[in-house]
Specification:
This protein is α+β, with helices and mostly antiparallel strands. The chain has twelve helices and ten strands. The chain has a domain of 111 residues. Helix 2 packs across helix 6. The protein starts with a helix and ends with a helix.
Length: 378
C-alpha cells in the first residue's frame, strides 16, 4: 500500500463518494502499490473490500474485451480497420449507416447517438443491432468524437459474426492465457470450468435501476414517472451487471458486463504494452497510443481516450500518449506507455447512495497524481 493514496481514498469514502475502493499501481510489469479500503457491500449486509473483491467494470469492458479482441483480429488480418459494418452485419444493408467502419466504431467517430435504452426500443435482445441501425445519426460520421455504447455493442457483434463465437467465449482465450480465475461475464452463473462466484465475493451496485429510469424520463423515452413499470429492476443489484442495456442482453455485451479484480485488470492491461504483452505483437500496441482523431474535440486511440484530451481523468502528470478508460460504476484504468506504468482504481460509487451519484473524475485525477508522485520518489 501507499499511505498517502490510501489516506486520500479513505477520506473520499468518509465523504460518501463511494463505499469501497481497491487500487493498484504498477511499473515496468510489476505491482508497486495496492490496497483495499471500505465496504464492498453495505446493504443488505456488510462485506469489507479485499484485494480479491470482484467489481462490475462497466465500460472498462470496451477496451479490455472488445477493443483487445478487435486489435488481435486486425493483427491476424481477420478484419481491417477500414472494413464496413455492412460487410459483417446484414442489418446494415438497408441503412444509411452501411458505411460505418470498424475504425469509426473503435474511436467513437461513427456519429451514433450517445445512448439509447435498447430495452425500450425492442422486446427482443436479438434485435439490438437492427434497433441501433434504425436510430438516427447524432452527428456526421468522421467529423467528431461522440462517445457511445452503441459503437462497442456493434463492434462486439462484428467480432461475434466473424468468429462465430459469442464475445464472452471469444475472450476466454485471453483469460486462459493469463491464468485468470476471477474475471467473467455473469459472475454468479456457472462458466469457465467453475460453479460461479458467490455474491459475497462481489461488490454491490445500485439498488434498482432508478438512475436509468430517471435518465429515460429526462430524455423523453418515458413520458411520466409512472412509466416503464416492470422494465427496471428494483432489487439490490449485486452480482449482476448494473448497465440496463447489458442486462437486457443477458449480461454479455461489448460495452459492459465484465467483472474482475484489480489484479486481473492489471494482467489484461499488460497486454496493451509492447514489452509485456503475451496476446499481441508489440507493434500492434501502437494502436492504443496513436491519436486517430487529431483536430477533433477529443483525442482518441483504438478503444481508448488519450491523456492529451482536455479534461481527461489522467491527471496532470501522465505522459500525453497515456491511454485509459473509465467505467460508470466507478472504475478506471490508465496506462502510461512511456513510463511503463499502470493505474487501476475500482470503486462501487452507485452502491448505498441516493441520486445523484458523485462524479469522481477529480478523485481519479488526484489518485493518479499521488501515485505518480510516489513512483517518482522511489
Amino acid at each position: 500500500m501507499n499511505e498517502q493514496i490510501s489516506k486520500f481514498l479513505l477520506e473520499r469514502i468518509a465523504a460518501n463518494d463511494f463505499p469501497s475502493a481497491v487500487y493498484l499501481v504498477a511499473e515496468k510489469g510489476g505491482i508497486i502499490y495496492q490496497d483495499a479500503l471500505g465496504y464492498a457491500v453495505v446493504e443488505p449486509e456488510r462485506k469489507a473490500a479485499t484485494l480479491d473483491t470482484i467489481y462490475d467494470l462497466a465500460s472498462l469492458t470496451k477496451p479490455l474485451v472488445t477493443g483487445l479482441i478487435a486489435a488481435r483480429m486486425i493483427e491476424d488480418k481477420e478484419i481491417y480497420a477500414g472494413d464496413r459494418a455492412g460487410a459483417f452485419l446484414p442489418e446494415f444493408d438497408r441503412s444509411g449507416k452501411r458505411e460505418t467502419t470498424i475504425s469509426e466504431l473503435a474511436t467513437h467517430t461513427s456519429g451514433y447517438a450517445p445512448w439509447i435504452p435498447l430495452y425500450l426500443r425492442t422486446s427482443n435482445p436479438l434485435n439490438v443491432i437492427e434497433t441501433i441501425v434504425d436510430e438516427p445519426l447524432f452527428s456526421t460520421p468522421g467529423n467528431s468524437v461522440n462517445y457511445s455504447d452503441l459503437n462497442f455493442i456493434t463492434l462486439a457483434r462484428i467480432i461475434e459474426s466473424r468468429k462465430d463465437l459469442r464475445v464472452d467465449i471469444a475472450v476466454e482465450e485471453i483469460f486462459d492465457l493469463l491464468g485468470m480465475s476471477r474475471t467473467s461475464f455473469c459472475p454468479l452463473a456457472p462458466g469457465r470450468g467453475t460453479h460461479g462466484f458467490s455474491r459475497a465475493e462481489i461488490a454491490a451496485s445500485e439498488k434498482g435501476n432508478e438512475y436509468e429510469r430517471q435518465t429515460c424520463i429526462e430524455k423523453g423515452y418515458l413520458t411520466t414517472a409512472a412509466s416503464g413499470v416492470g422494465l427496471f429492476r428494483e432489487h439490490q443489484i449485486w452480482g449482476e451487471v448494473h448497465d440496463g442495456n447489458a442486462w437486457f442482453m443477458g449480461g454479455i455485451a461489448g460495452h459492459a458486463g465484465l467483472f474482475s479484480t484489480a489484479e486481473e485488470v492489471f494482467k489484461i492491461a499488460l497486454q496493451f504494452m509492447p514489452n509485456y504483452t503475451r496476446f499481441l505483437k508489440p507493434e500492434t500496441c501502437r494502436l492504443f497510443r496513436t491519436n486517430f482523431t487529431k483536430g477533433m474535440n477529443e483525442d482518441r486511440s483504438f478503444a481508448f481516450q488519450l491523456a492529451s484530451t482536455d479534461g481527461s481523468t489522467a491527471g496532470m502528470k501522465m505522459s500525453p500518449e497515456s491511454f485509459g478508460h473509465n467505467g460508470f460504476t466507478g472504475t478506471s484504468m490508465w496506462i502510461d506507455p512511456v513510463k511503463e506504468r499502470i493505474f487501476v482504481l475500482l470503486t462501487n460509487r452507485t452502491h448505498n447512495r441516493r441520486l445523484p451519484f458523485v462524479n469522481i473524475n477529480s478523485v481519479r485525477r488526484h489518485f493518479h497524481d499521488l501515485a505518480i508522485n510516489a513512483l517518482d520518489s522511489i
